[in-house]
Amino acid sequence: MADPVLFHFDFSSPYGYLAAQRIDALAARHGRTVDWRPMLLGVAFRQTGMAPLTAIPLKGDYSTRDFARSARFHGVDFRMPSRFPIPSQAPGRIVTWLKATEPSAAIPVAKALYRAYFVDDRDIADPDVAADVAGAHGADRAAARASVDDATVKDAFRRSVDEALARGVFGSPFIVVDGEPFWGMDRFEQVDRWLATGGF
Amino acid sequence: MADPVLFHFDFSSPYGYLAAQRIDALAARHGRTVDWRPMLLGVAFRQTGMAPLTAIPLKGDYSTRDFARSARFHGVDFRMPSRFPIPSQAPGRIVTWLKATEPSAAIPVAKALYRAYFVDDRDIADPDVAADVAGAHGADRAAARASVDDATVKDAFRRSVDEALARGVFGSPFIVVDGEPFWGMDRFEQVDRWLATGGF
Question: Which of B94, B132, B139, B168 has its CA 20 to 30 A from that of A171?
């Protein structure tokens, strides 16, 4: 059985949200599953010296326009959240906890969290809101809420983020296929060909 | 007659080089011409606080890999230049001068300069090298060389770069269709649809 495609994403990333709508189907076409790996762009920014797109002069205005246009182009619902960007520890920890305790719920909950933020404008940085969303999509609501403050979960998530950075993951979405890194949903065509051919 | 598609590019930009291979054909499919507008990423970086891709931790290693892989993906010849990035005033001024004095030579010379740098590893930052390339592709070699040090040409190029920045151009390639901005050759599909439909 081939290794899963690694899908790194930050819950605060609009392009991560767009990629999240398509990554499973893309992998499935090649008989692959996807390992959804929440990360923290803020930690990566400290290493790269970068900043959130919308905080960069010139690039900020363009990016806000491009988020919405790219969503329309791909036929994906999108509304720019009132609060942006957000710290994404709460949803990241809930998904980390689900992967360890109830893996079948992890991807549906991750998709629901993204949708809550980028379609319904809910502030998933709030642990109670994030737990509500998880509870409505197959997770135990109280346990999900508790996971956000659980030292073991916090450690596991932080370790996972650090490991991703150590392997060169610096953006969202960031996809790794058999060791080959692809940054951005604009690399989906390349990911598709790589999965089909094993390299080019 | 519809307005030309504005194609902003830095001669030191690998993605600009890749885009340069396809932009004319893309525009032509929609009955449009292309206005090739050399720019200076270094000037944009000062406004955005950004840096050359290859100078950014983590992102640098990825980018070098992605340049070559993207070229293979698109079937375009590419060799990472020994000196990178380069200041691109010399080729930028030559193309600015050609647009004003011998417009039919501007695009062929721009393409030849890109190829000299990204395929033949010639240092087109050197005014003599840049003039050699221009001379071999339809321009007057001595006049091209002189244009690099011509105060009027220098002013015109600098003004053109400043105007682009004032209109929000911060990267390479950066394409503008009827006022709509698109950054990156990964937006070619969106440019294509925009040209076909007038917006989406």
Answer: B168
User: pTM, whole model, 2 decimals?
Assistant: 0.94
Alpha helices in chain A (DSSP H): 14-20, 23-28, 41-48, 59-74, 89-101, 103-118, 127-135, 141-147, 151-166, 188-197
Residues in A closer than 8 angstroms to B62, CB to CB, are 168, 170, 181, 183
Structure tokens at B173: 């390639």
- Angle CA(B170)–CA(B50)–CA(B166) in degrees, nearest 5? 30
Which of B58, B168, B171 shows the shortest C-beta gap to A48?
A: B58
Give the list of residues 6+ apart from residue A163 with CB closer than 8 angstroms, or none.
Answer: none
ipTM above 0.85, yes or no: yes
Q: What are phi and psi of A22, to 5 degrees?
A: -125, -15
A35-64 tens-digit pLDDT: 999 999 998 888 887 888 888 888 889 999
- List, for residues A18-28, the tens digit of each pLDDT value: 999 999 999 99
